[in-house]
Write a structure and sequence with these properties.
Nucleotide Exchange Factor Grpe, Chain A, domain 2; 5 helices; 15% strand; 3-stranded mixed sheet; alpha+beta
Length: 232
């Protein structure tokens, strides 16, 4: 009985078997890497000195910003503290200037001829005048200034115009009546002066221009678009 030889197991057919080394790699198997062909110089390596210098620059910027903010807070706090000390008496001043108003009204309510003919009224009037002068002296010592703008140009920062008075003899916008004097504490307005202003005369700007041009008849007309000149 003849036996059929298997070419895969028959030693005589060993040449027909492909070597395993030449067989293609199976997908998923690890592929060997030739480390000799890799250029290590191409791989970026962070310099620790450069990194630390960058961190120092960021921290320095944050520190300078924090110091600047602290300085701003310190200055603002100092300014607010100074203002609180400087203007702490404003509520009291507002009450006291009412007393000064009453003293001035008392002086204005006495007829001149009554003071001349009646010795008692004259004595009382002198006492009220001395009291009013002493009070104004106290105000002056503490930086409280009385605003009495009679004859001055209207300043809306310190004056409150309540009405207009037809008066062509003075430039329009001139204070011709003072109903109530104003007061200010240093550079802060406590109460504006309540005034009446002239209407119908030449504007202050026209008078100024006429003076700058070497004179004039002073009959310039007021700008119809403006009731009075409020320029400083």
């Amino acid at each position: 009985m003849s036996h059929k030889r298997d070419k895969h197991t028959d030693p005589d057919n060993a040449d027909d078997i492909a070597p395993e080394a030449d067989s293609p790699a199976i997908e998923g198997d690890a592929v060997p890497v030739d480390f000799a062909s890799v250029d290590i110089a191409e791989t970026p390596i962070e310099d620790p000195v450069v990194r630390l210098e960058g961190e120092v620059a960021v921290l320095k910027d944050q520190l300078l910003r924090a110091l600047a903010e602290v300085e701003n807070i310190r200055r603002r706090s100092a300014r607010e503290r100074d203002d609180a000390v400087k203007f702490a008496a404003v509520p009291l001043i507002k009450d006291v200037i009412g007393v000064a108003d009453n003293l001035r009204r008392a002086l204005g309510s006495v007829p001149a001829d009554a003071a001349e003919t009646n010795e008692q009224i004259r004595t009382l009037l002198d006492g009220v005048e001395m009291t009013e002068k002493d009070l104004q002296s106290v105000f002056a010592r503490h930086g409280i200034e009385r605003i009495d703008p009679m004859g001055e140009r209207l300043d809306p920062h310190f004056h409150e115009a309540l009405f207009e008075v037809p008066d062509a003899s003075v430039p329009a916008g001139t204070v011709v009546q003072v109903l109530q004097a104003g007061y200010r504490l240093r550079d802060r307005l406590i109460r504006p002066a309540q005034v009446g202003i002239a209407k119908g005369g030449p504007s202050a700007a026209a008078v100024t221009n006429a003076d700058d041009n070497g004179g004039g008849d002073g009959n310039g007309q007021q700008d119809p678009g403006s009731r009075y000149d409020t320029s400083a």
